[in-house]
Fold this sequence. Notes:
Layout: E1 8-16, E2 20-28, E3 34-42, E4 47-51, H1 57-75, E5 80-89, H2 90-104
Antiparallel strand pairs: 1-2, 1-5, 2-3, 3-4
Amino acid sequence: MTSSNRKEIEEVFVIQTDAIDFFGALVKEKGGKAVVHGRIRFQDGTRWAFHSPAGERAALSNKLLTVCKAIAGFYGTDVFCQKFDRAVGYEKFIGLLREAKHKMN
């Protein structure tokens, strides 16, 4: 991928309890638009993946945070949010997450 086509993560949102493992990322795509990509794994093993249509970064970030707060409230926990000062390559970030998870398990 050229740098103009590269997907870059700008923010991540995580909710993790025994009942739910939620990960959402605000991703900057070519043309400067943003999308949300994420996945959820429930205690019973059910897995969902989700994504949003392309939109404005601030609006998508606010929507994702609102949803995350509602989910975290339901499960009696908090949301971990991290906004990056500089965008991180999507493939590299996902690879690092997988590697870290493998080492922890």
